[in-house]
Every structure is written in C-alpha cells, then in structure tokens.
Structure to design on (41 residues):
C-alpha cells in the first residue's frame, strides 16, 4: 500500500513539473499547433 501511494505521489509531482516545464520551454499545444494565421486568446 505504501509503494502504491508513493507511486501516485510521484506521478502527480512529475505531471505538474512536466506541465510547467513544457510551458516555459514553449512546447504548449497553443504554441506548437497554431500558426500566424490562427489567433488563440
């Protein structure tokens, strides 16, 4: 049970870190899949 909870905590931490890391590096879906002809607010 302890290993499962540790795994869930690791998944949450990695997911949050990946989200903010990719946003900072410019790999958000808004930046990757839009061109200059598409305006996303």
């Amino acid at each position: 049970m302890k290993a499962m909870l540790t795994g869930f905590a690791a998944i949450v931490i990695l997911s949050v870190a990946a989200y903010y890391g990719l946003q900072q590096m410019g790999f958000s879906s808004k930046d990757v899949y839009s061109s200059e002809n598409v305006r996303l607010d």
